[in-house]
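Database export, one record per block. Field names are fixed; values are copied verbatim from the stored entry.
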Amino acid sequence: MAPIVKEGFPFVLAPMIAAMIAAYFGLWFVALFFVLIAAFMAYFFRDPFRTPPDEKDIVVSAADGRVTRIDETEAGKTISVFLSPLDVHINRSPISGTITKVEYIRGKKAPATSNEASFTNERNSITIQNDKLTVVCTQIAGIVARRIVCWPTTGDSLALGEKYGLIKFSSRTDVLLPSSATITVKIGDRVVGGQTIIARY
């Protein structure tokens, strides 16, 4: 079984303690219910090991999930990935580089399945830059998301595929790329954070 991220420990321990208390009083069905909740939380907060592709000039997915939006504006090309409660919710750096900006934006907690969530929901964006390009990764809270977690700060360096945060429960992750980048995925594709190549430059 994959290890779990440290932020998941309270969500696993609380129902396990409740299960032990219920079992002590002989409430076996109640105990089983809490054991199942603890098992789901351990699964949800799993932290699998990932090895990024050994290729040059690639952009990997920042999250596990399904590609739901690909568009291009004056700002560049955006690839949006929706994470269901069954997906790994750890975010990973799509390129190697230095974080030049971290911006948290308060917003709604509307369903992350909607493309509008990219513009209206609570979100946290980090800008990562190297000597060839700059990308912006945005963690977007969903209707049941409770907290956006981002570990590094401005000035920190990230390796390709390195973990940088997570979103608790259903959510969306956007990656904004320069217009010159070549997209290698399409809407509906399933992607794996830190491994699936979503673009080349």
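Remark 1: Residues 106 and 122 are 5 Å apart (CA to CA).
Remark 2: The two ends are 36 Å apart (CA to CA).
End of record.
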